[in-house]
């Protein structure tokens, strides 16, 4: 019974990742901005990078997420997250899962506590899609 629960959890996680990747690649009305908002952003486009309080230059996040870790995660936290992510991505055959995980986690580590990394997959769809493209085989 315990093994069945584990397989069910793994299946649900993989299904969620698959749906997320599909969603990130779609042009649904939900992902499109109204024309006025897009025009306003084009005239006052913010820099692609920001500088943390400790002087580190990092990519600006989507949705106005603020920096919570100016120096990023510890090496132990990053190693754990990369290992976990790589396990979840092992079944996605069209990308190098490790490359994807390293790309995405390197970007989110300043904006999310490790325990909230899952939220970043939804919040940071642009980074998700960029890292997915960069890791394609």
What does this structure look like?
- The chain has 137 residues and is mainly alpha-helical.
- It has one domain.
- It has 6 helices and 2 strands.
- The protein has helices at residues 2-25, 35-43, 75-89, 97-108, 117-123, 125-134; strands at 49-51, 57-59.
- Strands 1-2 form a two-stranded antiparallel sheet.
- A hairpin with a 5-residue loop joins strand 1 and strand 2 (57-59).
- The chain is globular, with a radius of gyration of 17 Å.
- The chain starts with a helix and ends with a helix.
- 18% of the residues are buried.
- The model is unreliable at 1-12, 18-23 and 26-33 (pLDDT under 50).
Strand-helix topology:
Blueprint: H1 2-25, H2 35-43, E1 49-51, E2 57-59, H3 75-89, H4 97-108, H5 117-123, H6 125-134
Antiparallel strand pairs: 1-2
In short:
Helices cover 56% and strands 4% of the residues.
Helix share bin = 55-70%
Order of helices and strands: HHEEHHHH
Whole-angstrom Rg: 17 Å
Q: How far is the N terminus from the C terminus? A: 37 Å
Order of strands across the biggest sheet? 1-2
Note the overall shape.
globular
Number of domains: 1
Q: Which parts are unreliable, with pLDDT below 50 for 5 consecutive residues or more?
A: 1-12, 18-23, 26-33
Separate helix tally: 6
Beta-strand content bin: under 5%
> What summary fits the major beta sheet?
2 strands, antiparallel
Number of strands: 2
Structural class: mainly alpha
Mean pLDDT across all amino acids = 80
């Amino acid at each position: 019974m315990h093994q069945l629960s584990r397989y069910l959890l793994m299946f649900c996680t993989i299904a969620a990742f698959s749906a997320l990747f599909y969603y990130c690649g779609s042009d649904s009305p939900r992902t499109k901005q109204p024309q006025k908002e897009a025009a306003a952003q084009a005239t006052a486009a913010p820099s692609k990078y920001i500088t943390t309080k400790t002087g580190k230059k990092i990519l600006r996040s989507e949705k106005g997420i603020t920096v919570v870790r100016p120096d990023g995660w510890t090496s132990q936290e990053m190693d754990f997250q990369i290992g976990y992510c790589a396990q979840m991505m092992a079944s996605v055959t069209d990308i190098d899962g490790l490359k994807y995980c390293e790309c995405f986690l390197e970007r989110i580590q300043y904006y999310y506590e490790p325990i909230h990394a899952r939220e970043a997959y939804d919040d940071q769809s642009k980074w998700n899609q960029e890292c997915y493209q960069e890791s394609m085989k």
